[in-house]
Amino acid sequence: MLLSARGVARRYGRVVALAPTTLEIARGEAVALIGPNGAGKSTLLSILAGALEPSEGAIESGNAVRRVGWVPQSPAHYSRLTPRENLELFARLEGVPDADETADRFLQLLELPDDGRLTSQLSAGNQQRLNLAVALLGRPEVLLLDEPTASLDPRQRRRLWDVAGQVRERDGAVVFATQNLEELEHFASRVVVLLDGAVVFAGSLEDFRQAPEADVFA
Amino acid sequence: MTKIRLLLQKDLRLLVRSPALLAALVLYPIVFAVLVGLVVRYASDRPRVAFVDLDHLPETLTVGGQSFNVPNVISQVQGSVELVPMDPEEADRKLATGSIVAEIVVPPGFASKLRGMVESPTLILKTAKGGLSGRVDQQTQALVYSLNRRLQAAYIKANLDYVNLLVEGGQGSFLGNEFDVVGLDRAAEILDEIKRTSDDPTIVQRAEELSVFVREAKLALSASGDSLRATANPIELQTDTSGGRTWLLSAQIQAYALGLTLAFICVLLAAAALAAERDENVIGRLARGLVGLTDLVVVKVLLAVLVALGLGFAIALVFGFVAEIFDVSGGEPWQRLPLLLLGLLLAGAAFGAFGALMGALARDSRTAVLVAFLAALPLVLLGLVPEGAARAAWWAAQAFPFSHAVDFFQAALYDSAPWRTLAVDAAWLLGLALAFGAAARLAVRRLLA
Considering only CB atoms, which chain B residues are within 8 Å of A92? Predict the structure, then answer.
């Protein structure tokens, strides 16, 4: 088991964003979180990433400290820095030994512009790829993706799933939130369905295909 | 520590990339400081006072043989107050509405009492209740003092005329009654003549006794001129306006310029920088183990400290160079710079921590800037309230770094024995930095929600 959420819940006053939820992520898995807007997918991913403290429950990663890469739905980087400056800064914060070289590598890997333009001047697609690149800097064992392909063109979507696949191939795991059933069919090994902050289905892709919940998203 | 340095470098880079914002942040408080200086300097100058003449003073008033042009006298004493002639009803109405701060009423019979030189005439001062009344009292006392100074020469001359009449004799008048006075000189001559011509030894002896009295009286009265002048002015004030710093380079203006610049820049900058981490959606990424929330608050406080040191040092250099170029005396602009740097560091930390608290409470940078500005402005104005003026306001100002920063800067730059003030205000600034920093650390969790 790489990472697990034990009864994690998040409340904002009387509003329940996520009811107590338990989820275990094993090596080599690709877990798809699906559900309508406001179902609690982003909240669960933020809690798994450690970016949001749960109101109750806990995140466990066995005896090891897991490297977790997080790609939030909205880009999370400094808009008045260039892509290179963002990558170098986050690489250094992650403790990557050669931050400059790592930044070079990800600029090339994700075809990010390196012409001195500020990140705020980039297209939404480029900003989303930078978002992914920042998440990959620490060579994560678990990659958490929150609707990552929303602003990507088909070619870049393929590139993203290739990169996510490499994390799985390294004996890591990927957890992604999506509304796109094609991506689910293409990449997921397990499906978790959230509705109104609660898990209503959790099982394999095959089980999901047979489950009545699948019709809701068809 | 490396992570703090990395984030600090990032913040400085972002700041440099916003030159318009930086320029506005620097220029605004400096302009504000000069304006405050002007207000502080001129607030006590020439309050508007109604002049109500119920005695219908003549154009020319003769007192003790000296003629005074009344409008001229009034215009010459207007340095301390602006006297505006008004009728009594208008003056009362304007005093009630606050258009004027006081009324000076010349009651009927004023001029005749003045001319009579027997009884002191009375001027009536009416003031409104409130903060200015004390100051108007002082200004009016200064005005009456100025009038008395001009009149006392006439009074002394009139008194000396009477003394001369006593010595030399002649025709005089008092309260409209004409009379003849023999005079001490003529009295001595008469007594000498009696002593020469009288055969009665008793009369000669009495005449001799009177002659002694007349000689001593003349001797005493010969010194009466100086004595009268000394009685009128036991202490003379000599005013020397040369030397010292002009108001623009004064300790007060420099300390306010530094204090105001730091109060606004550090507070707004720290507030905006902290809230911007959430605006950029980066706070979650940082908080998941890359940078602790305490470190994040420390970074913003350090950013404020660095900016405070840079800007404060630049302002001090400008003041120092101007003082050197114009050869202005007073103060030690260069020797005290290390002390000033300590003050800038502590003030930057205290203002930065307060700003970080505002940023954490406001959560987004636009609101943070607005909230920080709205919070800092009244707190700065409270800091301008003198200790004796409004005790509650003064105590409230103690909970904000501004007044301590200004006091520290003034003491550091100009006091000959600054150590006690420096120690007290340094302790205040450090305490406020820690208190606001701790509050900001508690509040910064709000940015993650």
Answer: 2, 6
CB contact (8 A) between residue B290 and residue A94: yes
Structural domain span for residue A132 = 81-139
State the total domains in chain A: 2
CB pairs under 8 A between A and B: 60
Find, among B213, B233, B49, B11, the residue nearest to B141 by Cα. B49
Nearest CB partner across the interface for A51, out of B285, B291, B445:
B285
Please give the pLDDT value at position B234: 57
User: Which among B4, B278, B281, B291 is the top mutation candidate for probing chain A, defined by the most A β-carbons within 10 Å of its own β-carbon?
Assistant: B281
Residue A74 located in a structural domain? no
- Closest-approach residue (CA) in chain A for B293: A51
Chain B contact for A78 (CB, 8 A cutoff): yes
Pair (A98, A115) in one structural domain: yes
Residue A67 near chain B (CB below 8 Å): no
CB-CB contact of A166 with A174 (8 Å): no
Of B13, B14, B284, the CB nearest to A51: B284
Residue B418 to residues A108, B408, B421, Cα–Cα distance (Å): 61, 9, 6
CB contact under 8 A, B286 and A93: yes
Number of neighbours of residue B319 by Cβ within 10 angstroms: 23
A chain contacts of residue B3, beta-carbon cutoff 8 Å:
93
DSSP code string of B283-328: HHHIIIIIS-HHHHHHHHHHHHHHHHHHHHHHHHHHHHHHHHHTT-
Q: Which residue of A has its CA nearest to B276?
A: A78
**Angle value at C-alpha A9, between A4 and A14, nearest 5 degrees:** 175
Q: Do residues A134 and A148 share a domain? A: no
What region, left, alpha or beta, does residue B67 occupy, with left being phi > 0 and alpha being psi -120 to 50 degrees? beta
- The ranges assigned to domains in chain B are 2-42+245-448, 48-132
A window 24-63, beta carbon within 8 A of B: 46, 49-53
Q: Model ipTM?
A: 0.86
The domain B48-132 is placed in CATH, from the list 3.40.1260.20, 3.40.1710.10, 2.120.10.30, 3.30.830.10, at 3.40.1710.10
- Chain B neighbours among A 148-187 (CB < 8 Å)? none
Write the CA distances from A136 to A72, A147, B85, B282, integer angstroms: 13, 16, 82, 15
pLDDT tens series, chain B, 449 aa: 788 999 999 999 998 888 887 787 677 666 766 676 666 555 555 677 888 999 888 888 887 677 777 777 777 656 666 788 888 888 888 777 666 778 888 889 888 887 777 777 888 888 765 545 566 677 667 777 777 777 777 778 778 888 888 888 888 776 667 888 888 888 888 988 998 898 888 888 888 888 999 888 888 888 777 777 777 665 555 555 444 455 455 666 778 888 888 888 899 999 999 999 999 989 888 888 888 899 999 999 999 999 999 988 888 887 777 777 766 555 555 777 888 899 999 999 999 999 999 999 998 888 988 998 898 888 888 877 766 556 777 788 888 999 899 889 888 877 777 888 899 999 999 999 999 999 999 999 888 87
Is B290 within 8 Å of A78 when comparing Cβ atoms? no
Residues of A in contact with B448 (CB under 8 A): 51-53
Q: Would an 8 Å CB–CB cutoff place A94 in contact with chain B?
A: yes
